[in-house]
Design a protein that fits this description.
The complex is a heterodimer of chains A (285) and B (279).
Chain A (H helix, E strand, L loop, with lengths): L1 E3 L6 E6 L5 E6 L3 E6 L4 E6 L4 E6 L5 E6 L3 E6 L4 E7 L5 E6 L5 E6 L3 E6 L5 E6 L4 E6 L6 E5 L4 E4 L5 E5 L5 E6 L6 E5 L4 E5 L2 E6 L6 E6 L5 E6 L4 E5 L4 E6 L6 E6 L5 E6 L4 E5 L4
Antiparallel strand pairs in A: 1-28, 2-3, 3-4, 4-5, 6-7, 7-8, 8-9, 10-11, 11-12, 12-13, 14-15, 15-16, 16-17, 18-19, 19-20, 20-21, 22-23, 23-24, 24-25, 26-27, 27-28
Chain B lengths: L13 E6 L4 E5 L6 E2 L7 H9 L7 E3 L26 E5 L6 H5 L3 E4 L5 E5 L4 H9 L3 E6 L17 E5 L9 E7 L10 H7 L3 E2 L9 E2 L7 E2 L4 E3 L5 E4 L4 H15 L6 E2 L13
Classes of the chains: A mainly beta (285), B alpha+beta (279).
Chain lengths: 285, 279
Amino acid sequence: MLVLRGHEDTVRCLSYSPDGRYLASGSEDKTVRLWDLASHTPAVLKHESSVEALAFSPDGNMLAIGTAVGELLAWDMPQRHRRSHVQAHRGGIRVLSFAPDGQTLATTGWDSSVKCWNTATLKQLRFLQISDSCSAVAYAPDGKTLAVGLDDGSIQWFDRAGRRAGRVEGPCRLLALAWSPDGRLLASGHSDGTLALWQGEQLHATLRGHTWTIYALAFTPDGRTLVSGGADGTVRLWDVAGRWERRCYRWHTSWVTCMAVAPDGMTAAAGSADRTIVIWDLYEG
Amino acid sequence: MGTDYPAAHSMDTCFFAIDRDGHVACFDTGEAGAVPAVAFSGEEAYELRQQLAELPRVEVLQDPSGCSNPGSAQGTDFHWGLVGSNHPILLFLASLDLVRDEIVAGRAVELPACKGVAVLFQSLPAELSQRLHDSGACLGCRLHYQEIEEFYPDLGTHGLFMYTHLTDNWISGPYGRQSQPARPIHVDQLPPQIREAVKAMRFDSLCFAETPHIQPVEHAECFSWEAAYMDVTGKHIRPIPGKEEEYAQAYEELADLTNKDDNPQVEPPPGHQPQGGEQ
């Protein structure tokens, strides 16, 4: 287990570069830290406001960043050059997700909308007005479906043209979404600690263990393990096929806000309100 | 621009804070309640209160801790409805036995409570009040205005823990928990601007769900009109840091008021020489 220290406020978001060399972390301290995972030293990219969401593009050439004032920024990687930015959402960006082809990026904000962007130009391609506020957004691995999680607990699916293709009601407020790598399962994390696995519009399984809000979910690349973290301060590993909790860790002194699994599936990282990032071996012990 | 001096504003305000778990609480100061310097926002606090009132509604549990001064021999010791009231009164009772008929007749409503039972009377007849108090059935009662919701929303119904200042205007006393949400809001469920405002004050050593009384002076630099504060045990009165000179002037009067029987003990100001002591 490795603890990365340096952020001066809550760590809000994490993303591994596709080659696994870097881990990007965004924080309420208004910085992005780009951790070189060989030396564990960070390069610091300063911003004007809290960094709420970030993600590497699938080819690793872009780091997309969403801020608390609603700015969407594109950084060229590995040059670390801020290429462009756009005012994307009123009230701040909550989550962003790249389409698998890297051509499109979806964002959701506190203004109850979902927007899709051309990643090369940051021009808006599509606007989805949602009735309730959206808390999560995730492209399916085939790129044909966009799942949107709402604060009312429901999940809606949209096709490439922005048409609503389905909807299910969750148990309560939804704060996190993640697709399994084969696209067969969609995991949703809720405010009562419930973790739901959906197969299309059918509830496939309900996993209980967290005692409070789940804020972060990520599948391993082989789809066999789901990693979750949340307000109860724990990180949990779930056996997806067996639907049981494999491990429960409590490293952080505060709640867990974000999660990412390394591209090789061997390690994962969890960020926390205690300002640290823990990286651990998924197959230890 | 000149320094903004809080004493120039009304201190009848509220402030927000989070605990070690990220729960959110609202503290109503009355007037004399201490406000952590990092959480003081003057009129903006009311704006924030309105924004938080847009959160989804949750069940709220009334809490007798908001009627209880810590350290008092009787425990719960506020009885606003002692002689009856034409204003809405919330009574904490051991059981519903003595008010069942009032509830059936629609003159009272039971509210969810975290301890015992809570019963709301829009007006409380003097005779009934006397019966409830003389028999010892009333564990504590307080005014409970619901009609000012529009102007001063009850954030307990929106997932916040609610604390109120307990000791009126004679001293900066502890805050008591008036209600607990059945499902508390977590700070990370709030939009960034609100999140930033409520987490400015963080009680890192406390969990609101387990803490019926809080004295902010013991946790952070605070503003207050008062020079003295009562500690969270209710047993000691001390100077608010930075106000020792003012405290020294008020010391004799405070000591006369309180240093009797089981009243809180007033600590002498720094450098104080007892009367008749050596110079």
